[in-house]
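agent> step 3/5: call structure_predict on target 'RING-type E3 ubiquitin transferase' (Rhododendron simsii).
agent> reason: downstream docking stage needs a structural representation; sequence fetched in step 2, passing through unchanged.
tool.input:
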Amino acid sequence: MAVIIFFLLFSSIFLNTEAIDKNCPPAKCFPNGPEILFPFSIKGLQPQNCSYPGFKLLCKENKTTIHFPSYGDLVVKSISYDSKRLMSLLDPENCVHQVFLNLDLPRTPFRYYYVLKNYTYLNCSAPLPRPFVQVPCMSGSEYHVYVVASFEVVPDSCKPVKTVAIPFSYSPYLADDSFGLGITWDVTRREDFVTCFSAARGKVLSLLVFIFMVATLVSVKTYCSRSAWFEKLRGHYATLKHAKFSPREARNQGKTSVGYGNHGSESRSMLPK
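tool.output (status=ok):
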């Protein structure tokens, strides 16, 4: 019975995987855009239950985007669904540090893919000498924004804005707005099942079939053994039923069955052969 329940349980997982594959087909916002699969989905192109909360994507101006309440929309450059689980993003404003400063990632299902370090954003009334390098996209004629290590001494003309854990400080050599905007997510229970059994469906199914066959053979063998035992018992009963004893033999047989032998130990009944 336990084997049957085991088989039915795993069969339901396979059916659930098939249902996800069938009802949540891959989708794209545009032909050259990233392919969107579970646990993500595109609003309006895929059913609502094809993604988890916070994993809903949008098609805007021929782009695939994801919305973060603390910042706004970011463009989805690519998504890797393998063991890396990496989604690369682009900032439409081409100001990656503006994203780092304002994106409240801990309140989302995601986290930065790269190693983080604490940096402090400074708002200075006057330019700082080198080696400080201001962030152009966040600075103006009357204010200058810098990103420094949190342990450094803050100049008198500057005020700390915020200390955040980000992948890197500002550098003119890292002008690509996509650098550092890589986020990942933890595998949830449902996704873990779907990914695991989608990848190893054939092997697991073969194992289940083998277990089912072994259980069937054991059941048949047990049934046959019990049937043979009952047939043997029935034969002994028939022999006993048709056996003829004289009155003296019957009395001796009864004594042998319930009495005691010469040594005082209880003896077994002696059925006629």
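agent> step 4/5: record observation. Residues 5-20, 195-200, 257-261, 263-271 have pLDDT under 50 and may be disordered.
agent> proceeding.
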